[in-house]
Amino acid sequence: MSEAGMRYLLEALNAGSMRAAGDRLNVAPSSISRQIAQLESQYGLALIEKGRRGVRLTHAGEIVIAHYRNQLADREALRSKLEELRSVRTGHVTAAIGEGFAGKSFTGLVSQFSEQNPQIRLDILTGSTQEILRMIADDEAHFGLVFSTPNDMKIHVRAVIAQPLMAIMRPDHPFAQKSTVTIAELATAPLCLPPASFRIRQILGTAEANSKVYLQPLITSNSIHVMQDAVRAGTALAILPQISVWSELIEGTMVSVPISDDSIEETTTSLVLRSGRQLEGAPLRLLKRIEAQLRQWNKPVRRES
How far apart are CA 234 and CA 239, in angstroms? Predict the structure, then answer.
């Protein structure tokens, strides 16, 4: 197996074309094509579909790329194991999370981990559920935290907890003393919601269809901080899982009220990584820290009566 050929094939797949891959690697597109052709000659099978403007793998190409990605992950794991043996607490971790998880509770966990491991470089990326799953499948992130349980053979679910959507509000809001709130009641209140492309809105869409009532947010934002600020100011209610405002719920500056709809009550949060990927060293340490925190987040915040 040609290491250069495999690297060029993976880069061409990620970049979408030979020319774009050449620009990234600072080599001529013809060199990339030649290396891939040599790989195909070695294997006796076409690895990319011919006649397409972009790069698309054949079934054989998918198998070869999956094997190569596993090799890269295994090399990283080996380096991490050797670092552990040398007792050097260094390394690099890339985690991808939904924007809704980037509240004080999660950022506090990351800050504490970073203070305890100052030589570990952390990259915390945010994105939609689909973007995160793509980053996981393409090894752009070691693991991810998503609001749903993916049904994808390329993704391994390491841990999952129930995280139903809740109406989030200030303690002095008229809905704050209710045991549950309906979609129809929420439709009468100013709301701050994420964009329609976000998983939260897709789940809400099912609940709206069930109730035949459709929510019109006063504010739409892809920032958890904007949603939190709107709640703090009393400008609007937010609809989020408790994990998004865990610290605020513990402090008592916000309260959460369940929404009475079965599709919302069954939602989950999942900690995921690529199927077959073995994490070691720094990525595994942070993964285990988040896994332990998930068990804490799995305990609902109870309001005082």
Answer: 14
Helix (H, G, I), strand (E, B) or coil at 61: helix
- Contact (Cβ atoms closer than 8 angstroms) between residue 179 and residue 302: no
What is the pLDDT averaged over residues 167-181?
95
112-118 long-range contacts (CB < 8 A, ≥24 apart) are 113/285, 113/286, 113/289, 117/89, 117/282, 117/285
Q: Which of 302, 294, 251 lies closest to 157 in space, CA to CA?
A: 294
d(CA 195, CA 295): 29
Distance CA 109, CA 290 (A): 8
116 Rama sector, left if φ>0, alpha if ψ -120 to 50, beta otherwise: alpha
The values of phi and psi at residue 192, to 5°, are -120, 115
Q: Compute the distance between CA of residue 74 and CA of residue 69 in angstroms, rounded to an integer.
A: 9
Interstrand relation of 91-98 and 219-220 (parallel, antiparallel or unpaired) = unpaired
Q: Considering just the CA atoms, what is the radius of gyration of the chain in Å?
A: 23
pTM, two decimal places: 0.69
What are the backbone angles phi and psi of residue 257, rounded to the nearest 5°? -120, 125
Enter the DSSP assignment of 188: T
Mapping DSSP to helix (H, G, I), strand (E, B) and coil, where does residue 237 land? Answer: strand
Residue 263 CB neighbour total at 10 angstroms: 17
**pLDDT value at 89 more than 60:** yes
Cα 270 to Cα 111, 132, 133, 183, 224: the distances in Å are 21, 12, 11, 25, 18
